[in-house]
User: Which sequence fits this backbone?
């Protein structure tokens, strides 16, 4: 059986949803070792439930983890030669994968939507041009590093037993060392963008930052998370954490409502796999309509207030 | 203080992108633009250099074409640019790109390297981290705020739950998110000055690194298309169609 390592990040004290998606996929590919970065040892049983036979446990404390964890993994990978090391396309994952790749002198296959082991190495699929095309990349050899986009696989537990646990000692990394001096958890109203069943998102067609208020008022009665295009994040209307798309979050809710969003490639790739897509835009040729189940050609400043009233009066 | 900002010229995102038939590499016209996300790094670099009597050097890899994207960043106020350009680098993966950039940065010398979190055309999202490893420096990533006193650098680092405050000593690599600062627009004087600023071109042999690439694109195929939906013109009642669909999907 191939040896598959999966990086698992602890978020709010538990393994991230993305990590569980990756573990679920990894157990199809071989014998799974989870690299768990976090302090909650109670999470080990969850890792077992999702497919890990073994856990490499690292707790970086107040050290920025990327340098020390990459250094420890590079040594361990050189000794054990796993076939594949899977990371998510997420913040800390990218930090560690980038440094690890450099240390091992092995490239990274980034933004994968699927991964397969082959006789000569590994193959990965990548959605390009807003997901309208799929490129398949290949790399020969051993110990491949792959970054997988969120929501590429469903997270499904199985009846896995308790994994064996080994501590991963984190070495001193000298000049590469950095310290986390404070941690801030932002108060959120409603569900997390990445996990919400309904997402209401706004784009430049809203016209002004104040109009994002309409997006929030639609989201509230639906119990939805709010999202945004890169254009209005760049314009400073809403924080980066709300960005949906290639360079932001990938979402796959039951219903996605796109208000004043034209549907640039960079946005489509982050939301086009939503089960139902509703789009409101005044340009009848906007690309968003090519993925919408219901497309409304109209002015958001007319349609949204009517929709708000209808939802609030229910 | 020596500030290096990594920038990239990309085909205009408002135009459709195409791939070369036999290699599946992105077609890069002579006329490329500065990746919009790089404007934040350039602005951050300029503000830090202003506060610490520093200089801002741009480092970029890729076909220079008419270099108008690089001139855009010079017009904002950067002092000079180094472009790494070599046929041997066509089809580079992230690791080879990082080696090229790191070799050029090391040759320039640096206290602080600033980059965007990912490019708009390639978006591998790992270059700043690779640079840090190659330059033996910490990678302070996804910064939504950056402060430096000339000795240490402190950032707010975006996390899934909120943000962390992260600190290290210089030299360091920082990657910045959009919105970290408000990028300035080039002035007319800036645009005129940019035409006279030094733009140096370097090859793989000038920099001396291994440009081998381990990844290949095997195939490119059309993705399964989504079934076409309904498109309606709003004549005052479209909202009720939306409500009906939300009811049908049982979210209200």
Assistant:
């Amino acid at each position: 059986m191939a040896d598959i390592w999966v990086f698992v990040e602890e978020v709010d004290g538990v393994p991230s949803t993305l990590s569980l998606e990756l573990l679920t996929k990894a157990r199809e590919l071989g014998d799974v070792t989870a690299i768990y970065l976090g302090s909650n040892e109670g999470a080990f049983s969850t890792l077992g439930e999702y497919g890990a036979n073994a856990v490499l446990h690292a707790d970086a404390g107040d050290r920025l983890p990327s340098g020390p964890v990459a250094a420890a993994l590079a040594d361990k990978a050189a000794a054990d030669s796993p076939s594949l090391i899977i990371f998510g396309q997420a913040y800390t994952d990218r930090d560690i994968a980038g440094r690890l790749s450099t240390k091992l002198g092995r490239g990274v296959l980034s933004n994968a939507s699927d991964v397969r082991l082959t006789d000569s190495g590994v193959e990965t699929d990548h959605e390009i041009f807003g997901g309208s095309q799929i490129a398949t990349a290949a790399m020969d050899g051993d110990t491949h590093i792959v970054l997988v986009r969120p929501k590429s696989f469903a997270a499904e537990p199985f009846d896995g037993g308790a994994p064996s646990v080994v501590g991963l000692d984190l070495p001193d990394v000298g000049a590469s060392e950095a310290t986390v001096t404070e941690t801030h958890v932002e108060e959120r109203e409603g569900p997390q963008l990445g996990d919400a069943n309904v997402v209401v998102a706004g784009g430049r067609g809203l016209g002004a930052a104040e109009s994002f208020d309409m997006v929030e008022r639609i989201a509230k009665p639906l119990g939805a998370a709010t999202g945004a295009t890169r254009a209005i994040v760049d314009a400073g209307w809403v924080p980066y954490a709300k960005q949906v798309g290639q360079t932001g979050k990938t979402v796959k809710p039951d219903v996605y409502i796109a208000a004043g969003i034209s549907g640039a490639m960079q946005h489509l790739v982050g939301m086009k796999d939503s089960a139902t897509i509703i789009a409101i835009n005044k340009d009848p040729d906007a690309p968003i309509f090519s993925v919408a189940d219901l497309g409304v050609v109209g002015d958001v400043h007319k349609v949204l207030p009517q929709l708000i009233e209808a939802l609030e009066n229910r | 203080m020596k500030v290096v900002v990594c920038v990239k010229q990309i085909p205009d995102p408002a135009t459709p992108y195409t791939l070369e038939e036999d290699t599946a590499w992105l077609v890069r016209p002579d006329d490329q633009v500065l990746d919009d996300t790089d404007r934040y790094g350039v602005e951050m670099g300029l503000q830090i250099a202003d506060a610490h009597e520093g200089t801002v050097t741009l480092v970029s890899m890729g076909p220079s074409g008419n270099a108008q994207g690089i001139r855009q960043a010079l017009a904002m106020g950067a002092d000079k640019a180094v472009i790494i350009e070599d046929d041997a680098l066509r089809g580079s993966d992230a690791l080879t790109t990082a080696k090229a950039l790191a070799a050029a940065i090391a040759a320039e010398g640096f206290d602080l390297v600033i980059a965007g979190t990912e490019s708009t055309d390639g978006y591998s999202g790992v270059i700043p981290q690779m640079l840090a490893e190659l330059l033996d420096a910490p990678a302070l990533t996804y910064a939504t705020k950056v402060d430096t006193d000339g000795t240490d650098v402190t950032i707010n680092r975006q996390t899934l739950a909120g943000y962390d405050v992260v600190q290290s000593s210089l030299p360091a690599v920082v990657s910045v998110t959009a919105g970290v600062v408000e990028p300035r627009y080039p002035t007319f004087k800036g645009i005129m000055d940019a035409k006279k600023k030094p733009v140096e071109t370097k090859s793989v042999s000038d920099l001396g690194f291994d440009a081998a690439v381990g990844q290949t694109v095997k195939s490119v195929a059309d993705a399964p298309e989504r079934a076409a939906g309904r498109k309606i013109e709003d004549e005052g009642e479209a909202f009720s169609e939306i409500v009906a669909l939300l009811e049908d999907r049982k979210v209200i």
In short: Chain A has two domains: 3-176, 193-312.
